[in-house]
Write a sequence for this structure.
């Protein structure tokens, strides 16, 4: 098979299994880069090339373990499913990931970002909706006008991560910002659009946020996903039920949601150490 034929079959195999378009696009890109790196089709390569390529991604490209693991998943799929080639997966293990705790912006800092974004009704509505509803980047960019259910105070998320639909909350302040934006722009289909009337891309959303973060002078790394982290953490800080937050975030696993407990003002940090309740010798 040629490199192009492998990519075409890969796409069909992914689509026939109901994988999301984001996954299809990502796997195609990863396999294309792998084939181009060695200059030959994947069926003419195997475990040795995968090991070499993974090492290259880690040491030369300096990719994060999570990014390298995406390549790992794509290559396992193309070999195991598309090419029906059995690999010894013990020789091509996934990279161990460590998850450090991010330094999140405060509610006051986010409020300042939204204030700055007030110069553009679309930008303010966009950022407030991402934070206020705890949306993923792609969920925000893929919103349609019809997804906003103002009567019931909720937003419909169509085919979120894993292809799952769900409803999330529609905060009153976000609804007010959305109404102001709609009155000015009146989008017909996609909710957040460019000046040319086309759908905003994920990169376009990130660029909007990046602009206001830079202008704010806030010395923290803030992305669209950071706003989602803030939503979960601030909800926990305000005493909301972790199971309800799990449903709002669209998490499948509970441990994904409970990770945010490390970022919240947890009651565990308010406990007293036995050292502080110990009586020193001679003070009895």
């Amino acid at each position: 098979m040629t490199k192009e034929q492998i990519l075409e079959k890969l796409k069909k195999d992914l689509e026939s299994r109901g994988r999301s378009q984001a996954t299809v696009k990502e796997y195609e890109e990863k396999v294309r880069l792998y084939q181009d790196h060695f200059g030959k089709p994947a069926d003419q390569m195997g475990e040795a090339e995968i090991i070499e390529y993974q090492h290259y991604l880690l040491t030369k490209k300096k990719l994060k373990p999570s990014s390298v693991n995406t390549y790992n998943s794509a290559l396992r799929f193309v070999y195991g499913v598309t090419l029906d080639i059995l690999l010894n997966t013990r020789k091509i293990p996934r990279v161990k990931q460590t998850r450090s705790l991010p330094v999140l912006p405060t509610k006051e800092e986010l409020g300042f970002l939204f204030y700055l974004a007030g110069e553009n009704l679309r930008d303010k509505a966009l950022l407030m909706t991402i934070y206020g509803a705890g949306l993923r980047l792609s969920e925000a960019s893929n919103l349609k006008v019809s997804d906003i259910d103002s009567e019931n105070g909720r937003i419909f998320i169509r085919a979120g991560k894993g292809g799952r639909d769900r409803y999330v909350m529609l905060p009153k302040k976000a609804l007010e910002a959305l109404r102001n934006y709609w009155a000015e722009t009146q989008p017909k289909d996609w909710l957040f659009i460019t000046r040319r009337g086309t759908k905003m891309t994920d990169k376009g959303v990130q660029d909007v946020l990046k602009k206001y973060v830079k202008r704010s002078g806030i010395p923290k790394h803030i992305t669209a996903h950071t706003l989602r982290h803030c939503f979960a953490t601030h909800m926990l800080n305000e005493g909301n039920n972790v199971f309800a937050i799990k449903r709002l975030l669209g998490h499948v696993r509970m441990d994904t949601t409970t990770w945010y407990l490390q970022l919240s003002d947890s009651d565990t940090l308010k406990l007293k150490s036995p050292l502080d309740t110990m009586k020193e010798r001679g003070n009895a």
Q: What stands out?
A: Residues 21-38 form the longest helix (18 residues). The mean pLDDT is 88. The radius of gyration is 23 Å. The longest strand covers residues 154-157.
